[in-house]
Design brief:
It is built from eleven helices and 13 strands. The protein has 329 residues and is α/β, with parallel strands linked by helices. The protein folds into two domains: 265 residues, Vaccinia Virus protein VP39 (Rossmann fold, 3-Layer(aba) Sandwich), CATH 3.40.50; 49 residues. A hairpin with a 2-residue loop joins strand 10 and strand 11. It binds S-adenosylmethionine (SAM). S-adenosylmethionine binds next to helix 4 and helix 5.
């Protein structure tokens, strides 16, 4: 999943004139702060300066954009009649979720109003500069609101609400109240996305529990609102492949021209979504004459084998991907 050209060019302009060596130093500092925040609840501000914000946009935004796009695509498939006019991006960083939601294959045709909540002035300043490069009025005219989201926020409710890669940055004691506030501000659908790690998934599972109690309709990725069948040694996550720029490879001393961003998410809606039998939770194994699928279903985790003898089902199974919904009967 590539960044839209307008966003890619805007980010490139921000890094132009900065040396790879200086950027590498900022990226290393930022990564070290993220790593140490994983050990203990994050009470500190991870991104504070303009250099931090630019480094985030150049080295993390392509991956978080891919993850948000992946999660929102699943939500769109489950809610085909949902045409949100307004979006609230909470813990927006440089506006990642706004750019993803306004992708032509998602809700570009209906989203007209965007509000973004973010604490760091440096992120807000950068987000506004990036947005100025967009050909879409919804992005250019988005409202940026400086707010600490661990406190009560005074923004109207919106049809689509997204909180991406932010839950883990909040002190653990603030998370449940934060999830309730997100749901209060949601008229249509709420999507919460976290890194696809055991810790990220644990936060998603907790959010799922809170939102089920708040009587939301669980629309994705789970095909059922029952207890999560994932064992304690595993975690539910998905993956998006995102290209790495030359600068990215240089600064991160990376050889591959892409990275696979792993993410976990949960999505709830005021209206029920389309029913599905299951969701593919690993890369399907396509073998000679059969396809083996690991699927989450209302009855628990299952291994489905679809063979050539199954005709149309087999042809359908060959097109499934990690994350696809499945209705194979
Ligand atoms: C990892 S970044 C994610 C940015 C964006 N959502 C994305 O997916 O790329 C987390 C963002 O949450 C913001 N944030 C963290 N704690 C916050 C708080 N208490 N109030 C407002 N924003 C906060 C940070 O400043 C940062 O921009």
């Amino acid at each position: 999943m590539e960044l839209p050209a307008e966003l890619r060019n805007a980010v490139n302009q921000e890094v132009t004139g900065r040396s790879a060596k200086d950027l590498a130093k900022v990226v290393e500092g930022l990564s070290a702060r993220y790593r140490s925040s994983l050990q203990e609840p994050a009470h500190s501000r991870l991104v504070q300066t303009l250099d931090d914000a630019v480094a985030y946009a150049a080295f993390r935004l392509p991956a978080t954009y891919g993850a948000v796009y992946g999660a929102l695509s699943c939500v769109k498939a489950q809610l085909p009649r949902f045409h949100p006019r307004s979006l609230l991006d909470v813990g927006a960083g440089p506006g990642t979720a706004m750019w993803a939601a306004l992708h032509p294959s998602l809700w570009q045709d209906c989203l007209a109003e965007v509000a973004l909540l973010e604490r760091e002035e440096a992120m807000i300043g950068l987000g506004k500069r990036l947005a100025a490069h967009s050909s879409l009025a919804a992005i250019r005219e988005a409202q940026w609101v400086a707010a600490d989201i661990t406190e009560k926020w005074e923004v109207p409710s919106h049809e689509l609400v997204v909180a991406a890669y932010v839950l883990g940055e909040l002190p653990s004691e603030a998370r449940e109240g934060f999830i309730h506030q997100l749901w209060d501000k949601t008229q249509g659908a709420l999507v919460i996305i976290e890194p696809g790690t055991p810790a990220g998934f644990a936060r998603i599972l907790k959010a799922r529990e809170v939102l089920l109690k708040a009587a939301g309709n669980l629309v994705a990725p789970c095909p059922h609102p029952g207890p999560c069948p994932m064992g304690s040694d595993d975690w539910c996550h998905f993956s998006q492949r995102v290209p790495r720029s030359r600068l990215h490879r240089q600064v991160k001393a990376a050889e591959l021209g892409y990275e696979d961003e792993k993410f976990s998410f949960t999505a709830f809606s005021r209206q029920p979504g389309e029913a599905v039998q299951g969701r593919v939770i690993r890369h399907p194994q396509i073998r000679k004459g059969h396809v083996r699928l690991k699927v989450c279903t209302a009855g628990g985790l299952a291994e489905w084998v679809v063979s050539r003898k199954d005709g149309d089902l087999y042809r359908a199974a060959r097109n499934l991907e990690w994350g696809s919904p499945v209705n194979l009967s």
